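Q: Structure for this?
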Amino acid sequence: MRLLQFVDRTATGPRHLGLVDADEILDLTQNGGPTSIHELYYGLGGDQDGFEAALQRAIDAASGNRRLGLADLLAASQTDDLHLDVPVSGPDENPHALRVWLAGVTHEDSAKLREIEAKQATGDAVNVYEAKYRECAAGGRPELFSKGEPETVVGHNRAITRPADTERLVPETELISVYALNAAGQVERIGYTGGNDATDNGIEATNPLNLPQAKNWSGACASMGPLFVAASAYDDADVTVSCEILRDGQRVGFKEGKTGQANLNMPDGLLHMERMLFRRLPLEPGQLQVLYWATPIVFAESDLADGLQAGDLVRMTFSGGIGTLDNTIVSLPQTDQLRLLEG
Ligand code: DO4
Ligand code: MG
């Protein structure tokens, strides 16, 4: 079962939850149904009976509801009355009920390239990326980090911002698993989506301690979508992803990669990251968690010399029904907030 969240400006309420049925969307929200994955889980018994039992009830109750065209929603922009939202979110009154964490260097190419770029930038062997890759492969601690606030993660057809002092912005194409906490206090892996962990590789290469700034900024520093695939409907063993960059309609970059459990470097695969994440950061009732699995696709300087520029379109595809995630790059507006301090 595949779901999406969408906005309908002509109706009341924050957002709608839709079930993908071939090339149509069944609106599960119309006539009093759930408005989000969060509500389905925590408001309509998902935490008691399991996510998919609650989803089945919502589908049964919505049989007479309206249907929309999937292609129309995927093509819609933010200014259209009906447009796509992020596939998973906290409720409007508490967006921080969604926690956004990411893994790093779980794929060999990414570890190797980062090591090379760090050496080029500094002249020294930095030796953190390959060391972390090997440590994790031997059952050690994976790299896990938080990515901005949930508001800085945007959906399909929304813009990712590029700060003015960016050195080299690159897309990172990552599978995402989604979690909730059931009424018995157990973490449930409820589904999957895809995402872009946009990164300023330029400043990251200069010094790994720049990582928080390389990963986090205002506006939008990540994206998710377009579709959410329920856990039972997603084979996370071997997932093919691609990333294309279009500038003025012309392809200026393209890469494909393999992710999924079979392509993670660690013993016990995803479970290893889940153990490490949730033992330090247990989920609270009412929270959802997304975990980006790290990128198998890296755009080195030889692939994309100056990185992403304002106006570029980043197009990511994820196999298994998640679909194609489009985001344009825009400049992060600059402020004059320092006039007072600077005198
Ligand atoms: O170590 C830096 C970040 C790694 C990362 O984001 C990735 O491998 O995807
Ligand atoms: Mg990443």
